[in-house]
Amino acid sequence: MKYTLTADVRTRLDGLLRRELPACSRNGDFSNSKIRRLIVAGAVFVDGRQIRRPAYDVFAGSTVTVNFEEEKFFFEKKPDDILFEVSDKDVLFEDDFLILVNKPAFFPVEETFSGSQKRDNLHDAVIRYLWSKNPSLRNPPYAGIMHRLDRDTSGVILFTKQRCVNAAVHDMFELHRFVKIYKVLCYGKNGLPHSKKFTVESFIGRISPKSAACRWGTLPQDKGGLYSKTEFSVVGEKMLSGKKCAAVQAKLFTGRTHQIRVHLSEAGFPVAGDVLYGGIPAERLMLHSERLEFDHPVTGEHISVYAPCSFF
Domains in the chain and their CATH numbers? Predict the structure, then answer.
């Protein structure tokens, strides 16, 4: 679909589209985030010139063309993907080099596709947030992905704001110089864990075919298994769907894919809501990244960032 608008006064590009597009479209549902996505995606032209900056000044008399497939644009790629925009309340720490955000559940960290359709993600949302704070930038601000959380996991996640710190942050993760604390609800068929504290160490790797959902499990080192270690502490009990679950704190010593989920499942206490690894049904994956501690890669200051857990 192609829409052509004419500006009658000097105005910001995003403001013009926000006012005029709903009247042109049969859908009419143009949120601020959707307007920004249209512009950043390169779907908007001013006097024939592609503009990717929401704050771009449009002068009176200028012709603005918006070209996109409306049906695909308004199609939600995954029914339970939430709509999310980073706001000040979601930012747990920020300086010139780093930004740490409280990620919600049901929102992927990085770009993925459903068929040919790109799903919204936290990385893009962080870039939109940084750009909204400095709208005069001609190009999107930088946000570097240094680690990941599963789509259904909530809590603390770190992005870099300058490429110059990427190597140092990468080394910190590789050398396990971060303290990573998670909160979990888990349920075992034979009751709660017998020990208040227990540690799981194993070599794990992907055990599912590439054509199937990614599932990790114990895998010998000579078959590609990676060393993993998690320390668990049972700190209480919670009732969930009529079942008594263990409220567990997990401290990661390594950061393998699905590590906590695999370790608890193989110990007989899968995470609640984790159907892939045998967990009981729940409204969400009951796994939350609660705390991240580290020494700042530039200043050396000790940083401790905390995101409260909603289900604990």
Answer: 2-73 (3.10.290.10), 79-175 (3.30.2350.10), 178-312 (3.30.2350.10)
